[in-house]
Amino acid sequence: MGSVSAQDGAEAGASAKTGSEYLLLDKSLQFRITDAVNSLYNFDFATAERGFRVMGLEHPDHPLPDFLLGLSTWWKIAVDLENKKHDAVFIGQMDKAIAKAEKMYKKNPENKEAAFFLSGAYGFQGRLYSERKSWTKATFAGKSAMKYLNLSKGDDELNPELLLGDALFNYFSVWIPENYPLLKPVLAFFPKGDKKLGLKQLEDVAQNAFYARIEAQYFLFRLYASEEKQPYKALEITDYLHSKYPNNPYFHRSHARHLYAVGRMVEANETSLEILKRIDESWTGYESNSGRYAAFYIAQYNDRIGNKKEAKKYYLKTLSYGEESESQESGYYLYSLIALGKMANEEKDKKKAKDYFNKVKKYAKRKHPAHKEARDYIKKNKL
Questions:
Q1: How far apart, in whole angstroms, are the C-alpha atoms of residue 356 and residue 289?
Q2: In this structure, are residues 286 and 271 in contact, taking their beta carbons and an 8 Å threshold?
Q3: Cβ contact 201:166 at 8 Å
Q4: What is the pLDDT of residues 331-383, one digit of tens each?
Q5: Residue 215: CA count within 13 A, CB half-sphere
Q6: CA 114, 130, 89 angle in degrees (round to 5)?
Q7: Which of 244, 257, 259 is nearest to 213 (CA)?
Q8: Are the CB atoms for 78 and 248 separated by under 8 Å?
Q9: pLDDT tens-digit profile of 95-126?
Q10: pTM for the complete prediction?
Q11: According to the UniProt record, where is the region Disordered (predicted)?
């Protein structure tokens, strides 16, 4: 799997531009900001943002510095989507990128780089608005993103940076109608996508892009794990990302999750213990959401090896982290309640067991498998 590296810049040295008018393709700039981009993904935001601000002084009218500052803020949001404290800053940074890209675009409607930034900035805003269930704003941002995505196509020189948008469009323009029929009208005026091609394009970006590489890998491992049912491919990417960016809590917990998913329980346990240690030590971005994942994997490991005392301890930690992050409807929280309910019943404490199972019924939707399991267990064991 490729990485953000100075390889291309090193080959070019600190040479002049590639001859293109596009800042995205300036190899000497890529060489100079490699450390800043890597710092972003390693959650050293101070170093990353210092580098992007210096770039902003050098290129005050270009959207790239504001876009990268917005990307830095996005990763502060992504690790804990329930926390809204960075929302306004993020929207403002992407608005600045949009304003500068619009000036470039009005000056020259053939400028594919301007269309790229308009598509990307609106796309990121749409992602946040959809997370916040601001559907009108999300729809507007999504339409704008796809409009400019269409306008940014057809420039081979800008690939593979531009290909990320193409890839996501091709995949999700098929996936969205399949999974969210109510959003079909948003896509009605755009060409039909191709999921298989979209996946191939994502793999291309993940190997060959500079700015878009890690974002493509982020989408790839999520798609491999869920939609494509290829957990070992997902694990391969998260293994790389965690080793490359060991201080990124999202990649760290994703690596633990995929170790767990393929049954590598000893490694999942070790990785999860490190996550909880970092939460206790207040590392940047390590918080209750990551703790909920990690505590559950540790509990499951101990449950499987018959260490009920440790399993119980970490199931209770899962509940504590779940309540802190207000994630009581999550599977980890619900299945921890079920496990604790069964333990209480085995210990002949039927009242406590019933309390745990009633909590499952309280937080789980009726169609959720955990709700059915709780109902069946209560009935079978006469709780």
A1: 21
A2: no
A3: yes
A4: 999 999 999 999 999 999 999 999 999 999 999 999 999 999 999 999 999 88
A5: 23
A6: 60
A7: 244
A8: no
A9: 999 999 999 999 999 888 898 899 889 989 98
A10: 0.87
A11: 364-383
Task: Pick left, alpha or beta for residue 109 (phi over 0 → left; psi -120 to 50 → alpha; otherwise beta).
Answer: alpha
